[in-house]
Amino acid sequence: MGNNNKLDILVIAVHPDDAELGCGGTILKHVAMGRKVGIVDLTRGELGTRGTPETRDVEAQDAAAKLGVSIRENLGFRDGFFRNDDAHQLQVIQSIRKYRPDIIISNALYDRHPDHGRAGDLINDSVFLAGLRKIETADGQVSQSPHRPRMVLQLIQDYYIKPDIVVDVTDQWEGKISAIKAFQSQFYNDGYTSDEPETYISKPDFLEYIEGRAREYGKYIGAKYAEGFTCRRLLGVDDLFALR
Known about the structure:
Blueprint (H helix, E strand, L loop, with lengths): L8 E5 L4 H15 L4 E7 L9 H15 L3 E7 L8 H14 L3 E4 L7 H16 L8 E2 L2 E2 L7 E5 L9 E4 L4 H9 L22 H16 L6 E5 L14
Parallel strand pairs: 1-2, 1-4, 2-3, 4-7
Antiparallel strand pairs: 5-6, 7-9, 8-9
């Protein structure tokens, strides 16, 4: 019997909106190809200056609908205080084994926000451990089988990092921005007003920065917009003509 939960791509990211900012276009592109994509957020972003965990929950589901993902879940780790330890690893392992993705996309391995690098290491370590049969986990009352995705990619977030691979998201750009703007409490959005403090990401300039980064990555492959990713291992292809 097949696994109805199985995903082709699982994005595991620490804050609601990390997936949209880092790989919203890539998600949209693969969903349009017929791939099953899901998102697991590690925290509810409760330490964010603007909004509440409850508003972020609603915004995350609105964004998920715009992206067309098959699932979006939240593990409820403590924003800012989670650790790369066995308790947290086991919960990530459960998610990996539940959805059995071929590809995982995680947070950047180092970044301005310390949660990003810590989450990147947590997810990377959990991916390896998820393939070990002597680590036992269960989904409810059902024992889970080991599973190790064939590839783990990392987002490029605030810090500039030279990508190992870039994905043309020109046709998905407007959809990506729409998904980002679903987080009205966090990002600049015409017509939305708030009496909460302005932040680094709530200014109009922030979305211009996101666009500038995408234009730069796109330039190198002859595209208008692209998203970049890193990988801890060498990447290979069967057909040189699939490269740009």
